[in-house]
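Q: You know discrete backbone vocabularies at least as well as I do. I have my own habits and do not want them to colour yours. No explanation is needed for now; the record alone will do.
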Amino acid sequence: MTRGPFSPGTMILGGGAVLLMGFLLVGYLLPSDWEAEASAGLPVAPEIVFGFLDSPEGWQRWTPWPESGVQRSGPERGAGASLSWDDPEVGTGSFTIAAAAAPTRVEYTVAIDEGAIQAAGSVDVAADGGGSRVTWRERGDLGWNPLMGYWALSMGRAQSEEMGKGLERLRTLAVEAATDAGPADSLVAAGGPPVATSP
């Protein structure tokens, strides 16, 4: 029997290389952007909800953040208020309030790994009966890493689920603020009086 020019081991390695190249190529061709959305009804006034939205400190109370290397910059509240981090486990990144219009809307941006991954989002608060309807939307781009293309396929669904969990935590905090505070000082308990700003 005539043997081919390549050994079985070489053929296996070559086939694996072709499969890997194909995997990476498909990853490059997949869209890297994603969208997520979550909504919840909160039994408190929009002004109380907004107290947790227009500052990085407010967001830290109901969304997950790195545990080390966190630094604060910009104004206390409203557009330009920013928080950055350099954590050995999650890497580097920043969160910035881009715009705030009390008590109905906050916009923000997120940059991770020196802008390799970017996201922008908004939280809208509308009066709903005796409470509020909070709608959180976010769009992001995972960059040109071919592995991120596969991640982007499920990122929207996974992020929507995490955002829903965040709104549940926001509900708990807002209800506590409304319960503990009287009508005159409810905004202080929620994190201070909201300030309307623009980009």
Notes: The longest strand covers residues 117-128. The beta strands are 33-42, 70-73, 82-87, 91-101, 105-112, 117-128, 131-141. Helices lie at 8-29, 46-50, 56-60, 146-180, 186-189.
